[in-house]
Input
Amino acid sequence: MSDDRPEHPDSGSLPEKLSSPRPSSSASGPGDTRGSDVSSSSHTNSSSGTDLYTSGHGDGQRHSDHPAQPAAHPPHAPLSERDAAIAERKVASLFLLAVIGVISFIVTFFAQEQEFGAPGNAYFTPLLGVFMAMALGGVGAGTVLWAKLLMVDDEAVQERHPFGSAPDERAATAKALRQGLADTGLPRRKLLRNTLLLGAGSLALLPLPFVGFLGRFQHKERVLATTSWVEGVRLIRQNGTPVKLGDLQIGGVESVFPDVFHGTIAADSPALLIRMRPEELKLEGEQQDWAYKGHVVYSSICTHLGCPVKLYEQQTHNLLCPCHQSVFDASTGATVIFGPAARALPQLAISVDDEGYFIAQGDFSEPIGPSYWERGT
Amino acid sequence: MSRLEKAPATTAGWVDERLGAAGYVRKSLNKVFPDHWSFMLGEIALYSFIILLLTGTYLSFFYTPSLTEVVYDGGYIPLKGVTMSQAYESTLYISFDVRGGLIMRQIHHWAALLFIAAIVVHLMRVFFTGAFRKPRELNWLIGVLLLVLGLLEGFAGYSLPDDLLSGTGARIFHGIILSVPVIGSWATFLIYGGEYPGTEFLDRLYALHIFVIPLAILGLITFHMLMIWYQKHTQFAGPGRTENNVVGSRLYPAYAAKAGGFFFLVFAVMAALGGLAQINPIWLYGPYNASQVTAGSQPDWYIGFLDGSLRLMPNWELSGLGYTVPFNVLLPTVIMPGLMFTVMMVYPWLEARFTRDRDYHNLLDRPRDVPVRTAIGAMSLAFYIILVIAGGNDVIASVFGVNVNSMTIAGRIALIVVPPLVYVITKRWCLALQHSDQELLHHGIESGTIRRLPSGEFVEETVPLPLVYQLGLTGVEAEALDHSAPPPLGPGYEKAAVEPAPDKDGFFSPRRNGSKNGSKNGSAERPEATLPELEATSKTNRPS
Amino acid sequence: MKKTKLSGYAVVLLSLSIVGTLYTAVAAPSSAVEEPAATKPAPTKEELVQEGRDLYLSGCSTCHGLDLAGGSGGPTLIGVGASSVIFQVESGRMPLAAGVQQAPRKDVRYTLEEIDALAEYIQGQGGGPTVPAGDLDDGDLQLGGALFRTNCASCHNFAGSGGALTYGKYAPELESASARVIYTAMQSGPESMPRYGDNQLSVEEKKAITRYVTYITQAEDVGGASLGRYGPLTEGLVIWVVGIAVLIMMTLWIGARS
Output
């Protein structure tokens, strides 16, 4: 079996079965002229290969993809018959490992308990992973080892082809392009050119209505600026029960929602009811009237990026946002004392109805949540 | 001859009768790829993408992208009877009721993390070795686009299960879009179909996640590979390696076997991780609810740098004339990454402009030989790593008992101080390494033999470095050596660099057009350089 | 050759990491449930109070004062109730080591009987919330989960792994807290933690939360090693430290010419 590489002194000692299986001419079918070209060219040196390729490609560019003489690294040292047999066994055992992996995988897949809470269910996925890794890794490692130990892998040198085309080639192509453009008559016919630009340009407007329909913009400003809180609505918990004065102890905190349809799932309405000693609350101006006997309610939607601010420290009255660590002081109107948030959490004005339940005096006085262009100052 | 031995040729014959592809196929089989471990990093990304397609297809058979509320009645006991979205319910179904569904989910998620990690490592290799230079600028651009698409794809996937973490992520994303001046609120209403959270976000994200973005990634990967194929891979300098050749393994059979085997190895590592390390346990997070949140809310690692920049940003907000510009969001999550990726994309052209280097480059730089580029890379990396660490500062603070506020402040200072420091240190380090290389080249290896000169002075004899290593150190192209002869030592080396023989078509080098563009220092034009000259060229060759 | 050596290291490291991962995966699901102590004849209430008083005077009065009114460094204990005593002592926070911003968990210094005695004594001095009799973690698991996500997860993390608060304070992890400690923490609102009175979270609801916390912190991880249940951060660490590292070692092995 001949090769397209030059012989190196030791290659003769390679066992026949280990040398790379290259197509030989005898393998081609009868009457298969191009097929025999394949094999014969693989025996000869680069020149016929290059010609064959160039003619097939027809782009006029001449390539020089041909393997040349080996370079500085000494060629793959051939293994002795004994070492090759050992190597073959190593590779074979890896392939067999893959078989074991696949069988174990299938057995585990059907036999192992998977149902949550059943004994041993926590081993289901880990076992599947181990056996899958065994199967895939056996094939992968075996193949790599095979390539490293048993395949002929001499260092080869290949010339690069030039990146740019020859100047005459370029000129000819440019000329063809110009000629083609001239043939369309576009450069001469101004009316055609202008209307084409206009027509094609107007096509860009065609998808706009479709894009616009992706969103419903009705009342956008109002929707952004308001929440579900309205005057007189009770403050309820996640489970729908209203919060009564006295439910919270000092140092207590409760997630509250407006008692309206979908109030507990509306994304803009969650708020935080906090109770502290009345003397600890240091609110100013009208905000004092928005609190009730040491109870104060803030929007729990962070003014930075909208995460729920619910980490309340009852001793320091710090409110921490778990997403980007903005810190608000609940005792001074949830003003920012650290972090990237720029504005205080909006405060909800509350009072207590006749039955002793907390109610809202109205909606928040400003848009809740992250800032946006038209939110106002 | 056995049937197996005949098979390749008969098959090829059959195909060739119909397509006439024999010449092309043979040429392709013989295509030479340079051998270096770092050239396989991109393969990891490619393979993890294939794993993502395989596992993702399976997951899509069970997942429902819907926010419609249902009551859970599946296998996970602690959530039985809890109201949740169909998206979350179907993800729980995959995890607990589909046999082997959990391992598919976990392999998918691990492979997603690996995909982007591998892209980043590959990008670092390409950057620090200068592989992006002419003629490969376009492929670099595609690579950066792939990274950006990977981030988007990852974010979309992270948001699909509609668990507590992904819902929090979707809400932050909403706030980021909202922060864009003028169009912010319009854009969020477009994306979410109305007020947040709306009912359509997940359907749209799903279409993007399983169709649009993967298709774009696939297309770009194809283009990426075609360009590598056509332009041939770069290689490190070394004996026999020049700007005009590729030294390495033929594609067929050994290289293909190694690459194919490596795919299975990558898949095996993903399977092992997918089975042995729990990832994104959505059943612990619980269903998303706008009023709930968990401590340590984190994005996946690849979005961590954006979370970190948000955390480190001071609370600047500008408002006036009835309008508000939230710089505390806009700057770290829109302007900063926009700038970052733009600079990355145009970097090859920037460098070419500043170094006035318009030559073709097929030989890679050693990082130390290009101190400025290496320093820029290290500086950017330091910047990025600080942001990633800041993105996890609450969990780090909680695990190691550190003050999270101090970490934020330290991060702000580090972000300004550390990158320039890293720049200076890296540059000096590179120069020091170069210096020690030159030392070795000029003085050779100490032989241990002490000789006494006639003057009475003692000197140690040095042996010149074998040429094989000299060529590696100079980073200069040198024509093929006759490896069968012992490496030339001592005074014999002048003959080492020989005139390259013209190939069949009479080409010496790929620079037929390049020389016109003024390759002032093109070493290819001096094929007969002796070693001292080679050294001189190598110095001029280094943009600093 | 250098490369051969490198690939050798790679193989060793690879196998080590695989063994390590296997070990953690297999060894992780081991639950430590304490057996209840052998029953002794229960002491009378008077005996308990007397024992509690003795323990208080020898162990606590230096800081909290002989008359419980507080003193050097310790707050008053009048009216804090049995609940607070059980939380502080059974979690090992009291007696307190000097000079800490937040009382850390330590080894428990008193036996359960002694803690009951102390609690009984303090309860007698001004009253306060007490722990209901019976099992504290027999509540409704699903209700507990919902309440946990609303009230607790924001500080203690989705799986009770703990989290950072402002300026060095922290919400501790809940795995090492007993059912009684979890329950009494909600009742008494220690340090930074908000207080959840019975009007806010009923006894049943608190029991449900306790049940969920003990369940979830003991629950096996069905997907392999838990990675600490800290969320995506540790996952990102693993993909770099294990995933990328192992794969790069593989490329070294594949790329090395033998």
